[in-house]
Amino acid sequence: MDPPPQEEVEIPQSQAEDEEGDIVEIVTTTGDCDVVDEGHFTSESAQILIGEIMGCNRDLENIKQNINDVQNKMKNIIHVLGRV
After folding, report:
1. What are phi and psi of 19, to 5 degrees?
2. Buried-most residue among 25, 33, 39, 71 (CB within 10 A)?
3. Which pTM was predicted?
4. Rounded to an integer, what is the distance from CA 17 to the centroid of its chain?
5. What stretch or stretches form a coiled coil here (predicted)?
């Protein structure tokens, strides 16, 4: 049985901060861009970013599980072929 297709995973590509440190820009491989004005950074902003991190961790765990499933499937196929 094939695993469900993976959702697009956002991986931070670069983080740039302007010379004065007022703006933080996070750019991802999908082209999404989060800009946070440090002067207006709130606990709500932090919660949003923490939620993004948690989502990325969940996606990575799903990818790891899918890799393990594929490796086990390959081992089973090789085992069957070895008996033929």
Report:
1. -60, -30
2. 25
3. 0.51
4. 22
5. 53-80
